């Protein structure tokens, strides 16, 4: 088994993200690895900046999403700190989740990504896409997918 030094863990508000965090915590302990937790607050690419100026409700939604993500990151960070694991957090916005995750993986020279998969199939997968599937197909480093 390879020695992992830098583990990236993308999270969202789903329970499966927290399962991925638990796996990362366990692996980081055994490998003495550093961990970076990332959350991506995606902005709809079809919505222009002008729309935000005239739609305060949408602006408020994204501000709340960012605040929620920041609180989630801080909460998860404390789990790693309590166990003496070196951990950093990143909040990315303005790009798709896949782009954000791959960008951070490259920036930190991650050698493993641990992430949850919602397990969508069929129409849900076609309509909503699969970040996990995108990461698996586009990422050059090992990816550990935690399923529900």
TrEMBL record:
One GO cellular component term noted in the UniProt record for this chain: cytoplasm
Domain UspA: 4-147
Keyword field contains Transcription: no
InterPro entries in the record: Rossmann-like_a/b/a_fold, Universal_stress_UspA, UspA
Pfam families to which the protein is assigned, alphabetical: Usp (PF00582)
Statement: the UniProt record of this protein carries the keyword Cytoplasm: yes
Keyword terms, alphabetized: Cytoplasm
Cellular compartment(s): Cytoplasm
Family: Belongs to the universal stress protein A family.
Protein name: Universal stress protein
Source organism of this protein record: Acinetobacter amyesii
Organism placement in taxonomy: Bacteria, Pseudomonadati, Pseudomonadota, Gammaproteobacteria, Moraxellales
């Amino acid at each position: 088994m390879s020695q992992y030094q830098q583990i990236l863990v993308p999270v969202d508000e789903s329970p499966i993200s927290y399962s991925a965090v638990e796996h990362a915590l366990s692996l980081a302990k055994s490998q003495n690895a550093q961990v970076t937790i990332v959350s991506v607050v995606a902005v709809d690419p079809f919505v222009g900046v002008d729309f935000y100026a005239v739609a305060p409700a949408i602006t408020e939604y994204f501000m709340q999403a960012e605040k929620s993500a920041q609180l989630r990151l801080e909460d998860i960070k404390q789990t790693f700190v309590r166990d003496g694991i070196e951990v950093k957090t990143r909040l990315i916005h303005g790009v798709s989740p896949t782009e954000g995750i791959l960008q951070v993986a490259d920036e930190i020279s991650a050698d493993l990504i641990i992430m949850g998969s919602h397990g969508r199939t069929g129409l849900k997968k076609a309509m909503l896409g699969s970040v996990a599937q995108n990461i698996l197909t586009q990422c050059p480093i090992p990816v550990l997918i935690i399923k529900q």
